[in-house]
Design goal:
CATH topology of the largest domain in chain B: Phenylalanyl-tRNA Synthetase, Chain B, domain 3
Strand order of the largest sheet of chain B: 26-29-30-34-33-32-31
CATH topology of the largest domain in chain A: BirA Bifunctional Protein, domain 2
Strand content of chain A: 15-25%
CATH architecture of the largest domain in chain B: 3-Layer(bba) Sandwich
Shape of chain A: elongated
Number of helices of chain A: 10
CATH class of the largest domain in chain B: Alpha Beta
Structural class of chain A: alpha+beta
Number of helices of chain B: 22
Largest sheet of chain B: 7 strands, mixed
Distance between the termini of chain B: 89 Å
Radius of gyration of chain A: 31 Å
Radius of gyration of chain B: 42 Å
CATH superfamily of the largest domain in chain A: Bira Bifunctional Protein, Domain 2
Oligomer: heterodimer
Structural class of chain B: alpha+beta
Strand content of chain B: 25-35%
CATH superfamily of the largest domain in chain B: Phenylalanyl-trna Synthetase, Chain B, domain 3
Helix content of chain B: 25-40%
Strand order of the largest sheet of chain A: 1-2-3-7-6-5-4
CATH architecture of the largest domain in chain A: 2-Layer Sandwich
Chain lengths: ~325, ~850
């Protein structure tokens, strides 16, 4: 009766020379070893089973190594400096008419462009951040119930995939402080990807896009905020729009509002349909203080939202899941 | 949360239509998700008296009744006395009963809105039944199948059921998320106060809820005042308790109370339970009733109530039948050493009131909302009570509500107050003043409020307000407004109650400095445009991938940041590079019928190997990856290289390609086949910008790719850096004709193309003649060790026309150099 130890060397050698190392797992030796266990006394079985299992693991590792070796050897080197393959010709580009940009990228560029023309600078937001930028700097005390609303993910290290682009606020305020104190204003937008631990369906995604804006000056007011946002959406949709607000609670603003626009005619709006497009408000004094800006000297307003839902509305995209699906059938609609 | 407008009207006038009210609430308090017209559901329901009732012959449970509806229902069969015959199977039907009758052609309220069931006149066991007599369940009030609903006898026959029980009501479904900071609005009184405020009316808090007017019914009994101790003031700011005797646990609350509870989704039980629920809904303050005798029994006959943190290993059997393990963050109510309730969340099974309960200990308390929030999540308890406690109910409220409950139970369940009121109150706080000035408020809001406007607005909702000689407004928020601390909170209050929409939008003033768009944004935009022009499709894919995807690409999983609370294993790790995400898309698109295409993405990548920045946060890299499949013109590598060079050229960058040297451990390189890929460098600066090539056989297999697939992954910021410094390429057009010569060299097949071209270029003249070198053909016979490479050399003079000799001299120089350096033959 063979033992695993006796079979080991033979099987390993076979793997090292085989072109199809996987087949070694079907060797009669292994089957015999397995059969042998059945004939053992019950108290011996577990030890023998363990030994056989260890052997199998070792063989699997050897098979992986051999397969990798075969895979590498299987390819012939090429002259990577050549413009094309031997006996071939210069490869063509793909047909221009099939090429497309992603609608989110296109629309974000449009929004950024409008804000730039309005006097805001723009930066992409981070995709991995910390508790301070996500909550602490934004006047969310530790354990505050409002934190629940954001359904944040966390990494092992305690980092947070941002659940809103407001994670950029503290950085933007700190960076703009000198300009402010030199008599200027802070006018900045942050845009990018945000993440929420949410089940995905036709209208919900765990990954989506937001645009965040911050304005700080000596005389910023809520009326100015309404004017700036109205102007943004009127430019974006190329028409006059009615706006309204709804009280909302976000710890980083006071007062806090939801901002709504009447559904634009170009999206099939007939009047009276309201769209919630973003959250906004006057920056809470604690948020200014967190960036070392004196709230008795300066005031600001901020907003965040828009993103995917605006883009879906604009193009009539029926399912948010299409956006990150990578389906050519979807992507090529945006030629 | 559901708010009944009829309930609101008991506390404030509403003199606008429901549509206007909905709009006002939406713009000045909270979003309303839905408005339900409750009256419609009860449209046809009529109150009737059972005049005759006799068993139906041949049936063991049906009765034939004659009912009096006051003759109000038309088109129904009546007997000579004007009575209507209805067959009823309920065991409690009897002569003299006042009932809710669903006449023929009316809709059973329970089915309203779903699959409406419209009644008719039909025979049951041979006897005609005109519609039916309704149970509470059929009336969609609550689950009670024991019989028909017995109405109050003082209701008139023929009266509409909805009128009699105030069910001509509109229910407002409120989005509570934006009221988490407003515990007061979780009671009808608090909500009504806001409704008054947004209509510009002064709200009068009901007298019996005023702290100054707390009314306790006379003590009638001599039970010792319960001993109450709050062990840690951080857990509970106040705990009150009182003992009631003579409680009739089987008593029911008035039907009207029951219908109010039922319409907002609270199931009526006994008078005792209903009273606590009713008061919670009205005031926002939850109460809890213990069976006093059972409570005593767990502590050897003594009452020694202790509010304390849970202890590890401690267990508690709850009302819902579960046995839970307590933790230090739970707050428990204990009698002596024994936990009897999970504070604010749920009572214990051992002290539950039941039908035999006659003596009750009633609790009114406030608990730390953070602890309760934790308890809620840990034990999955989402009751109406804990919903309110987790908003932070104010401690002063416990007293008037407890007094009110005692009064209610005396009235509805015959209870007597048998003890004095125990009151542990370690969390007493003083009211504070918050200051405002009209001029500051108007500057912040862009509004035009007068001092008088501000004062009135605040007074309407219960603020005490004083104005100084210098027009400084000192507002004292009422005790239920723990959310108001700073002048900005008053801006919110005044702006909101008067409507932010009444503020006219304006625009900030700015100077005429041009803002430069972000350089990186502009760069990315051109990259997208160029690649789309090359026929590629931009994708956006998730930042998170499956651990297997990383492993399949040959990357080091240890470098990837792991999400601890991911939705699924598919989204557990931050991706180390973009290529694996793209590879995952190739096969599904091929299966959908696309055979030849290129996908690209610009996005961020994350790896522990990137290290951290000064702020301690992980460094983020901006990457560009492309993958092209279905390549038919030669090895796929060259297609990917061509696309990359097209991009580089459009950015003014010239690239060099080198075989990767050894295993660098770089995760972005890991998927690429070392023999069929190249690291990419900028020729001008020598900077490395990425990798291009075919994928390892193992990677191809793992992602089910064909061999005709290749791609690249580029560090976008490195590419931008070299593009920004790339020289302008324009040279003035020449007035003189160019000369072209084609040269074909036969060389050993392992001579690299780049070396050959370099030799050609090195032999070309510098100075006033511009020389260009283009490859024309690379031919390698199937057998043999040589290949033929053909170049086209174009010479363009700037100063004079080149003669044949001039050109021949240049070409000879090239031939000499290439033959000398590569042993080439000219073919």
């Amino acid at each position: 009766m063979t033992t695993p130890d006796e079979a080991r060397a033979e099987l390993l050698a076979r793997i090292r020379t085989s072109d199809q190392p996987q087949t070694v797992l079907r060797s009669p030796e292994l089957r015999e070893l397995a059969d042998n266990i059945k004939d053992l006394q019950p108290e011996e079985r577990s030890g023998a089973g363990k030994a056989l299992n260890e052997l199998k693991q070792e063989l699997l590792r050897a098979i992986d190594e051999r397969q990798a070796e075969l895979d590498e050897a299987g390819t012939a080197p090429i002259d990577v400096t050549a413009p094309w393959d031997v006996n071939s010709k210069r490869p063509d580009l793909l047909p221009t008419e099939t090429g497309t940009r992603h609608p989110i990228a296109t629309e974000l560029e449009r929004v950024v462009d409008i804000f730039t023309r309005m006097g805001f600078d723009a930066h992409e937001s981070r995709q991995l951040d910390d508790d301070w930028n996500m909550f602490g700097a934004l006047n969310f005390p530790e354990g505050h119930p409002a934190r629940d609303g954001y359904d944040t993910f966390r990494t092992e290290e305690g980092f947070i995939p941002p659940a809103h682009t407001s994670t950029m606020q503290n950085r933007v305020l700190k960076a703009g402080k000198a300009k402010l104190e030199a008599g200027g204003q802070i006018a900045s937008i942050s845009y990018g990807r945000v993440f929420r631990n949410e089940d995905v369906d036709v209208t919900h995604e765990h990954t989506f896009y937001q645009v965040e804006g911050v304005f700080v000056s000596k005389d910023a007011s809520l009326a100015q905020m309404l004017g700036v946002l109205q102007s943004l959406f009127e430019t974006y949709f190329g028409q006059k729009l009615k706006i309204k607000t709804q009280p909302a609670y976000f710890p980083f603003v006071e007062p806090g509002l939801e901002f709504l626009i009447e559904k634009p005619a170009q999206l099939g709006g007939k009047g009276g349909d309201w769209l919630e497009v973003l959250g906004c408000g006057m920056i809470h004094p604690n948020v200014l203080l967190a960036a070392d800006i004196d709230p008795t000297e300066y005031r600001g307003f901020a907003w965040g939202g828009m993103g995917d839902r605006m883009i879906m509305l604009k193009y009539g995209i029926e399912d948010i899941r299409h956006l990150e699906s990578g389906k050519l059938a979807f992507l090529r609609k945006f030629a | 949360m559901i708010i009944s407008t009829n309930w609101l009207k008991k506390f404030t006038d509403i003199d606008v239509s429901i549509d206007e009210l909905t709009k006002l609430i939406g713009s000045r308090l909270v979003e309303i998700e839905e408005v339900v017209d409750l009256g419609k559901k009860y449209e046809g329901v009529i109150i009737a008296k059972v005049v005759e009732c006799a068993p139906l012959e041949g049936s063991d449970h049906l009765n034939v009744t004659k009912i009096d509806d006051g003759g109000v229902v038309q088109d129904v069969e009546r007997d000579e006395n004007g009575l209507v015959q209805v067959v009823c199977g309920a065991p409690n039907v009897r002569t003299g009963l006042t009932v809710a009758w669903l006449p023929p052609n009316s809709t059973v309220p329970e089915t309203y809105g779903n699959e409406p069931f419209v009644l008719g006149a039909r025979k049951l066991r041979g006897a005609m039944s005109n519609g039916m007599l309704a149970s509470a369940k059929e009336l969609d009030l609550f689950d009670d199948h024991t019989g028909i609903l017995e109405l109050d006898d003082d209701k008139q026959a023929g009266q509409k059921f909805a009128d009699a029980y105030e069910l001509n009501d509109y229910l407002l479904e409120i989005e509570n998320k934006s009221l988490t900071h407003r515990p007061d609005t979780f009671g009808i009184v608090g909500f009504a106060r806001e409704i008054a405020g947004i209509q510009g009316k002064k709200f009068e808090t009901p007298n019996r809820l005023n702290l100054e007017n707390v009314y306790w019914i006379e003590k009638d009994g001599d039970i010792e005042t319960p001993s109450v101790t709050i062990e840690d003031a951080a857990l509970s700011s106040r705990y009150q308790a009182v003992v009631l005797t003579n409680v009739d646990s089987s008593a029911k609350s008035p039907l009207e109370t029951q219908t109010y509870l039922a319409r907002i989704g609270v199931r009526p039980h006994s008078a005792v339970v209903d009273a606590t629920n009713y008061l919670m809904m009205v005031t926002g303050q939850p109460l809890h009733a213990f069976d006093y005798d059972k409570l005593k029994a767990v502590n050897g006959g003594a009452i020694d109530i202790r509010v304390r943190a849970g202890r590890d290993g401690e267990k508690l059997a709850l009302l819902d039948g579960r046995e839970i393990e307590l933790s230090m963050s739970d707050i428990v109510i204990a009698n002596g050493e024994t936990p009897v309730a999970l504070a604010g969340a749920m009572g214990g099974r051992d002290t539950e009131i039941d039908d035999d309960t006659t003596t009750v200990l009633l609790e009114s308390a406030s608990f730390n909302l953070y602890n309760l929030r934790n308890t809620q999540m840990r034990h999955g308890i989402f009751s109406e009570a804990i919903t309110r406690f987790t908003k932070g109910q104010p401690a002063p409220l416990t007293e008037p509500v407890l007094a009110e409950a005692v009064g209610l139970l005396a009235a509805s369940a015959g209870a007597k107050r048998a003890s004095d009121v125990a009151d542990a109150y370690p969390g007493k706080t003083d009211l504070r003043k918050v200051y405002a000035k009209a001029e500051h408020m108007n500057a912040a809001l862009g509004s035009a409020f007068s001092t008088h406007d501000i004062v009135t607005t605040l007074q309407n909702v219960g603020f005490e307000v004083e104005v100084s000689d210098t027009d400084v407004i000192a507002a004292t928020p009422p005790y239920w407004r723990a959310d108001v601390h700073i002048s900005e909170d008053l801006d919110e209050e005044v702006g909101r109650l008067n409507g932010f929409d009444s503020i006219a939008p304006s625009l900030p003033v700015r100077d005429f400095t041009a803002i430069s768009p972000d350089g990186f944004d502009r760069f990315r935009s051109s990259v997208r445009t160029v690649l789309a022009r090359a026929g590629a499709n931009e994708v956006l894919t998730y930042s998170f991938v499956h651990g297997d995807t990383i492993a399949k690409a040959g990357q080091d999983l240890g470098n990837a940041y792991r999400i601890v609370n991911s939705i699924s294993p598919d989204l557990q790790y931050y991706r180390l590079s973009l290529t694996p995400s793209l590879l995952g898309l190739v096969r599904p698109n091929v299966k959908s019928g696309y055979d030849s295409f290129a996908l690209f993405e610009l996005n961020k990548t994350h790896s522990k190997a990137f290290g951290s920045g000064e702020d301690g946060l992980p460094e983020e890299h901006d990457a560009l990856a492309l993958t092209v499949t279905g390549v038919k013109d030669g090895a796929a590598y060259y297609k990917a290289k061509r696309l990359l060079e097209f991009l580089a050229e459009s950015l003014g960058v010239t690239l060099a390609f080198r075989i990767p040297e050894g295993d660098s451990g770089d995760d972005s390189i890991a998927p690429f086949d070392g023999k069929r890929s190249a690291e990419v460098f900028d020729v001008a600066s020598g900077a490395r910008i990425g990798i291009v090539g075919e994928y390892k056989t193992g990677v191809q297999k793992a992602f089910k790719l064909n061999r005709d697939t290749a791609g690249f992954e580029i560090e976008l910021r490195a590419l931008m850096a070299v593009a920004e410094t790339a020289p302008h390429r324009y040279a003035p057009l020449s007035k003189y004709p160019s000369s072209e010569r084609d040269l074909c060299f036969q060389v050993a097949k392992d001579v690299r193309y780049a070396d050959l071209e370099a030799s050609v270029r090195a032999a070309l003249p510098a100075g006033s003649v511009a020389a260009a070198v283009e490859p024309l053909d690379i031919y390698q016979p199937d057998s043999g060790d040589t290949k033929n490479v053909t170049f086209r050399i174009t010479l363009t003079p700037a100063e004079k026309t080149l003669s044949g000799e001039d050109v021949a001299a240049v070409i000879d120089g090239v031939i000499q150099k290439v033959t000398a350096e590569h042993g080439a033959l000219v073919v």
